[in-house]
Specification:
The protein is mostly helical and about 110 residues long. The protein is built from four helices and no strands. Helix 3 runs antiparallel to helix 4.
Length: about 110
């Protein structure tokens, strides 16, 4: 028998929470950068219109760190959270573009 417990692999819940925390940190960072450079924090929200792709800038490095630390379940949660974000963003973008197209036709 093997009495050695398996290494801590994190949890999917931790990965989902990490995704949410990274999104929040990115919003704050973008708003701060926009406030300093453009004079208004509202401009910092512009990258989040395409967050499905923008999140690659911070989710991929977090994914690599989780892989190197052996946090396989956390990595799965991170990927799941990023996937959900991408799909929701794609659906909302589709709805907006479809609505704009209908508005232009009428």
């Amino acid at each position: 028998m093997n009495d050695v417990p398996p290494p801590d692999q994190g949890s999917i819940k931790q990965g989902l929470l990490l995704t949410l925390a990274l999104h929040a940190a990115a919003v704050v960072a973008c708003c701060l950068i926009a406030a300093v450079t453009a004079g208004g924090a509202a401009g910092g929200l512009a990258p989040f219109l395409g967050i499905g792709l923008f999140q690659l800038l911070y989710v991929v490095p977090a994914f690599v760190v989780c892989t190197k630390k052996g946090l396989l379940r956390t990595r799965k949660g991170l990927a799941l959270g990023a996937g959900i974000t991408f799909l929701v963003n794609a659906a909302c973008t589709g709805i907006v573009l479809y609505t704009l197209q209908l508005g232009g036709v009428r």
